[in-house]
Write a structure and sequence with these properties.
- It holds the Pfam family Cons_hypoth95.
- It comes from Xylanibacter rarus.
- This is Methyltransferase.
- There is one protein chain.
- The chain has a single domain (about 30-175), classed as Vaccinia Virus protein VP39 (Rossmann fold, 3-Layer(aba) Sandwich).
- Helix content is about 25%, strand content about 25%.
- The chain contains five helices and seven strands; from the N terminus they run αβαβαβαβαβββ.
Length: about 180
């Protein structure tokens, strides 16, 4: 796993072979971040990475200048790996939490400029996540939410949906709670 750009560009981390998590491919990660450049400036943003897995996205967000990142992962070994990577980078801009994402969402009172979620594709609750995250008010006004999912899911009918991108077998749906442009009455 490598960090694509930013202050830690090119740093590599070897993922233990015992891990079940599949990190977002470098190809997909690079492309989705290129798309995001048109929607949000991550410099000094407050970000949330749900189902962090190996921490690939959290590390990328820190490298790209986010003011703070909260990384939520339930698996004990994955959580420990994320903490180990953060320690190697010597950064305090990411808080790695070990816990259930749904409990976190229900109890979180903070708002974020950017949210990324990469749940297991077979997660039974996967189809409910975009609506849940958007309805809980976790996004700041004009915030961006990127949801990674399998090819068999479509979220075009969810309020706040902006666009869908696919890179190989990796699919992203992008959402926002952008304020409507000044409408005349």
């Amino acid at each position: 796993m490598r960090i694509i750009t930013g202050i830690y560009k090119g740093r590599h981390f070897d993922i233990p072979r015992t891990f079940k998590a599949r990190p977002t491919t470098d190809f997909a990660k690079e492309n989705i971040f290129n798309v995001l450049n048109g929607y949000i400036d991550l410099e000094d943003a407050i970000a949330l990475d749900l189902f962090s897995g190996t921490g690939s996205i959290s590390l990328e967000l820190v490298s790209r200048g986010c003011q703070s990142v909260i990384s939520v992962e339930a698996d004990r070994d994955h959580h420990a790996f994320i903490k180990q990577c953060l320690k190697k980078l010597g950064t305090d801009r990411c808080i790695a939490l070990r816990g259930d994402v749904f409990r976190f969402i229900k109890s979180c009172h903070q708002q974020f400029d950017f949210i990324f979620a990469d749940p297991p594709y077979a997660l039974p609750e996967l189809p409910t996540l975009p609506k849940l995250i958007l309805e809980r008010g976790l996004l700041k006004p004009n915030g961006i939410f990127v949801f990674e999912h399998g090819k068999n899911n479509s979220f075009e009918d969810v309020p706040g949906f902006i666009e869908h991108r696919a890179y190989g077998s990796v699919n992203f749906s992008i959402f926002s709670n952008r304020e409507p442009e000044g409408e005349d009455e």
